[in-house]
Amino acid sequence: MVTVTKDGVTRNIPMTTSQKILHHIKANLIIILMVIALAIGVIAGLTVRTADGWEYWQKRKIFYLRFPGDLLMNMLKMLILPLIISSIISSLASLNAKASGKMGLRAVVYYLTTTFAAVIMGIILVLAIEPGKKGGEITRSGSSKEQEPLEALFDLIRNCFPDNLVESAFRRQTTVTGTFKYQLPITLDDENKTEVMGNYTSESPNVEKSEGMNILGIVVFSVFLGAVIASMGHAGKPLLDFFEALHVATMKLTMLVIWYSPIGIIFLVSTKLIEMENPGTIFIQLGYYMLTVLAGLAAHGLIVLPVVYLIATRKNPLIFMYNMLKALLTAWGTASSSATLPVTMECLEHRNNIDIRVAKFVAPIGATINMDGTALYEAVAAIFIAQVNGVGLSIGEVITVSLTATAAAIGAAGIPSAGLVTMTIVLTAVGLPTEDVSLILAIDWFLDRFRTAINVLGDSFGAGIVDHLSKADLSEIDHLNELEMAEETTKAEEAGITNTAFVNGGMKETENGEIGSRL
């Protein structure tokens, strides 16, 4: 319907077919532009690879071509810090302890359930398809960083409590194992007690600061600060107003970045295709592995998550997914759930009508610890590497893979290819060679985009479920706030009347006193 006002009379006139199409295009223009951008990026990347003379000073050309995409990533990453801080703090500060506790518990139960379900899905598929036993020999490329599971767990806990909050915006703590030399005496002749000094080497773990935002520490700090502000009552109102205003301003900046994103996505996708040495050979060699991962991600994203959402809310999950399409396309283009966070929150609040308090609380935490796609990928990759090496995993080792992949995914950063870092933890847990991560490095950038989209979809469904289950708690908070405001208004009015009566009474007494004295 189109509302038309003529001669002071307002009428609703049905839209024609062309008007409906135009209205639908305007409402979904950014999504259409993103789809076009993805197509252009793929076509441009494949076309440039076949151009004559491309091999000449290739690195410099790629560097120039990637520039618009780098700008998009920089702008999205720039918004991560103010968005996480403002959204979590303002959300928790506007809730009471009971409501925030229930909401947090529901979110954590959902995160653990869906992440573990993703791992089980991946394990079932990789054991059924057995991609590591098919195809020819796979070319290794690159190397990986090895880390002990216990050290990774310590890093996860340590980063929850950063020693410098400002520094956590650009550095995080990481355990680095180095070697040191020492000397001990060696007895060469027991009879004459002849001793010489022998040289030895040993490993020495040490905590160092590495580049990269410590999002987990920022989230933990924001959660506690928001809870403290909520407990302060009226004294914390100025801080609450500040963080709410910061959130609104950040979301307005996000809208500006969203309109630039199609341009950046074109160059991000095209340069990744150009940088591949021999995409045809790589895709043939690792075809079954890719098929297994993509099948698992599709089953989890199109079956498991929608069914969980349908059971929990009794609402149509397809409509919910369609409304999140802008965020999913951004996740595919940027391969970063943290960088996609501003778009995710915009879709949740404005397209799926999720309560702003729920979106500001659940989405940032989900982007930090809820990594369904990453967990599935790590479970599949670990068993795939075992199959390539001809190592048979026992039931206990498969269970170890599932539990370790779930825990490692929680600790994975929301940045491109972060799963490769935590992948070594899963391999170490079952005694597989960590250097074999290089088997999948060649196509990780491609699969990373799909698992990031599933990560974002899982976060979004989680926000929808928590919002549905928290309706009663949020309504109770709104009702209590209304009663509190009404009570304050009544007290203010009573205080004003009392003061007036007191003043008038005083005047009367004065007048009476003056009259009495005159008499």
- The tally of domains stands at 2
Distance between the termini: 81 Å
Along the chain, the helix and strand elements come as EEHHHHHHEEHHHHHHHHHHHHH
Characterize the biggest β-sheet: 2 strands, antiparallel
Number of β-strand runs: 4
CATH uppermost class of the largest domain: Mainly Alpha
The SS-based structural class is mainly alpha
Radius of gyration: 30 Å
**What CATH architecture of the largest domain would you give?**
Orthogonal Bundle
In short:
This protein is mainly alpha-helical and 519 residues long.
Provide a descriptive summary of the structure in words:
This protein is globular. Residues 141-145 and 498-519 have low confidence and may be disordered. The protein starts with a strand and ends with a helix. It has two domains: 23-170 and 212-477, Proton glutamate symport protein (Orthogonal Bundle), CATH 1.10.3860.10; 171-211, no CATH class. It has helices at 17-27, 29-49, 58-65, 67-93, 97-129, 149-160, 215-232, 237-275, 279-285, 287-313, 317-323, 325-334, 337-350, 356-369, 372-388, 395-411, 418-429, 441-469, 471-518; strands at 2-6, 9-13, 171-189, 194-211. The chain is built from 19 helices and four strands. 71% of the residues lie in helices and 9% in strands. It has a two-stranded antiparallel ribbon.
